[in-house]
Design brief:
- With about 450 residues, the protein is α+β, with helices and mostly antiparallel strands.
- The chain contains 17 helices and 16 strands.
- The chain has a four-stranded antiparallel β-sheet with strand order 1-2-5-6.
- The longest helix has about 30 residues.
């Protein structure tokens, strides 16, 4: 073969090689346009027989102008929470629209998992950044955080200088526990102990009604900031706090009003009276805490207020029903006792009340609410649940086959053995329980047999 032929053949081969390589480059570019890089941790979550090529290449049937940013490589540039949330919703819609067990659905599910993970990471990063910006400063038990978000519709006042806090202009701090607010310049002058700290260290109310001692006991100074106050020729007006009985200056006493616990317990008086700022914050924090033991503070109140005695009776019935629910699977699964989760002390004891409980009793809201809850509990025991119904009682003192329960109005319960009888039968038998009588007889027979055996052994 001549040299020229060899050169022509090599040239043709080189041309073919260039054409082939260029075609490969075009195909690679096309595949790169529709490529995806799902995370390796989620690529195998959909199907175990997917190939690496199926994981990397986007099905061409999915690419449209509307969803290009959701499924293409450009989706990696989505960093904001709003864009990622929008992409997740769009991807979910595409999954529902795709056919089952198809390559498109498999790929979309992997993409959805990846987008959700990125959305969760973005949210956590935003929360961490927000926590870093919220510097907490502790002053006299307060946990102050800098309020950087302007709220033009909300008007705040500084608890230290009584000045208006313009959130658009001023920087200010607020306690996360008691909501004490102050300017940045007033932070070093805070002299009030956090009401949340007081409520945690001593969770009780002052039992006396306005225990006033007079200005002389305070050395004619404000009980909080120690400013001079007097009724004689003074621009600083002494103001009495009806809760703790001490006098304050106008900067510490804003004539705020609140219900006084001692007046409620002793007089059933719910009229709001003027209190200082510290007492106002303390009463607000303590309002829903069940710290009032009415049976110890004023037992006569139950006979004076009919609604209070009815609430106490319902609470006693709820404690009895609780014994049925704690051993009932249906009651546990349906979370019946969770209907009282806002007043958890109602399923723990009978005599603990919060100030909010007494306020709701006076308005009639609490009694109505407890009657509805009681009706649901009774319906479960007597009608819905056979297990709870089977734990009822039949009166041994009469021939009536009616099943009765300890929480029934016409039922009487033996305090020794907890057996239930009709109240009329219990009264006619002079409150003598036949079950207790049988137990006493068996115990006496056992004692007699034991003593006779001992006599035989000794003889």
């Amino acid at each position: 073969m001549c040299r020229s032929c060899v050169i022509n053949m090599e040239g043709n081969n080189n041309n073919n090689k260039v054409i082939f390589e260029s075609s490969l480059d075009d195909n690679a570019t096309a595949n790169q346009t529709f490529a995806s890089t799902p995370s390796s941790s989620t690529s195998g979550c959909v199907s175990g027989d997917d190939t690496s090529e199926g994981k990397a290449v986007i099905p061409a049937s999915l690419v449209t102008a509307e969803n290009y940013l959701t499924i293409s490589e450009e989706a990696q540039t989505l960093t904001s929470i709003e864009d990622l949330a929008r992409a997740v919703e769009q991807c979910k819609e595409m999954v529902l629209e795709s056919s089952e067990c198809s390559e498109e659905r498999k790929w979309l599910v992997r993409r959805l998992i990846e987008l959700r993970l990125r959305l969760q990471e973005a949210r956590e990063a935003a929360e961490d950044a927000q926590d870093c910006h919220q510097e907490v400063r502790v002053v006299r038990g307060h946990h102050f955080t800098l309020q950087s978000q302007p709220a033009p519709t909300t008007k705040h006042h500084c608890d230290r200088c009584c000045g208006v806090i313009w959130s658009v202009v001023h920087s200010w701090y607020q306690c996360v526990d008691c909501k004490y607010s102050c300017h940045v310049k007033c932070l070093a002058q805070v002299c009030r102990v956090c009401a949340h700290v007081k409520a945690s260290e001593n969770p009780t109310y002052i039992p006396d009604i306005c225990p006033e001692l007079g200005l002389s006991a305070q050395a004619y100074r404000c009980a909080e900031c120690k400013a001079h106050i007097t009724f004689k020729n003074s621009w600083v007006e002494p103001r009495l706090c009806d809760y703790d009985g001490r006098y304050y200056c106008p900067s510490c006493h804003w004539n705020s009003t609140a219900v006084i616990p001692a007046r409620v317990v002793h007089n059933w008086d719910f009229e709001e009276r003027r209190v200082c700022r510290a007492s106002k914050q303390l009463l607000r924090i303590m309002e829903k805490r069940p710290v009032l033991k009415l049976q110890q503070l004023n037992p006569r109140l139950f006979g004076f207020v009919e609604e209070l005695s009815l609430v106490k009776k319902i609470r006693e019935d709820i404690l009895v029903m609780k014994k049925y629910f704690v051993s009932c699977r249906d009651a546990i699964e349906s979370r019946l006792l969770w209907q009282l989760q806002e007043r958890q002390h109602f399923v723990e004891n009978v005599d603990s009340f919060s100030l909010q409980d007494l306020i709701d009793i006076n308005s009639g809201e609490l009694l109505e609410y407890l009657e509805k809850v009681q009706a649901v509990f009774v319906k479960h025991i007597k009608e819905d649940c056979k297990l709870c119904y089977g734990r009822g009682f039949v009166c041994e003192m009469c021939d009536d086959d009616e099943v009765i329960f300890p929480f029934d109005v016409a039922a009487a319960v033996c305090q020794k053995c907890c057996t239930v009888f009709h109240r009329n039968c219990w009264t006619k038998k002079n409150q003598q329980c036949p079950k207790c009588v049988r137990i006493e007889k068996r115990a006496s027979l056992r004692r007699d047999s034991t003593s006779s055996e001992e006599d035989n052994l000794s003889s």
